[in-house]
Amino acid sequence: MEQASLYNLLKNHVPQNAVHYCVDLWQKYPFRFRLAGNRRTKFGDYRFERATGIHIITVNSSLNPYAFLITFVHEVAHLVAFDTHGHHIKPHGKEWKITFRRLFQPLLSDLIFPGDVLVALKHYFINPKASSYSDPKLALALQAHDRMPEGKDSLAGLPRGTRFKLNGRVFEKGLKRRTRVMCIEVKTGRNYLVSLSALVERCA
Fold it and tell me: Which residues are within 8 A (CB) of 4 and not within 5 positions of it... i.e. 6 or more apart?
């Protein structure tokens, strides 16, 4: 992929003020970049083809610009950490955390991220997790900028006592417990902790 082609691709997926930085990362740490579909189990992926010596990074095209940018740099950090320290290190160990913080530092600006996401990011980078969506505060901040699927609501936005469907079962929203909500399954009366960022279908 040529520089101009990557630029034109990224400008449709990351905040405008971050495009040049992403291209600079690609130039400094060359890799083959691909867009992927809406994968449920992961937002991005990095792998190294030993036979060809090519680094390959994919990012889900369905992510909003802020989540896409975080995922893009997350995967580049894997490349840099493995290239620097060898493939014996843990994928999300201390080497990756240090590398991810370093690569992302120039992007922590209100010229790139809205205030709610920027605050959550600064907290997240104290100890970055394997997935940005594993951090409840960051997950909620990013989700607020998603295009909500038709017929879906974020559990965080529903009033207490609201009934909703999740995975084909009906629940009633209860009390908030830090990053999750105690919900009662209507059919069985059992209590379940559900993530605040869960996408649910409100019952009529």
Answer: none
Output the DSSP codes for 149-181. Answer: PTT-EEGGGSPTT-EEEETTEEEEEEEEETTEE
Residue type at 151 in one-letter notation: G
Instruction: Say whether 193 sits in a helix, a strand or coil.
Output: strand
Q: What share of the chain is helix, strand, coil (3-state, %, to 5)?
A: 40, 25, 35
- Residue labelled with tokens 């992929």: 1
Average pLDDT for residues 163-181, to the nearest whole number? 92
Q: Quote the longest CA-to-CA distance of the chain.
A: 58
* β-pair type (169-177, 32-36): unpaired
Which has more pLDDT, 8 or 151? Answer: 8
CB 184 within 8 A of CB 190: yes
Per-residue confidence (pLDDT) for residue 101, from 0 to 100? 97
Question: And the tokens for 35?
Answer: 């867009």
Block residue for tokens 């080497």: 95
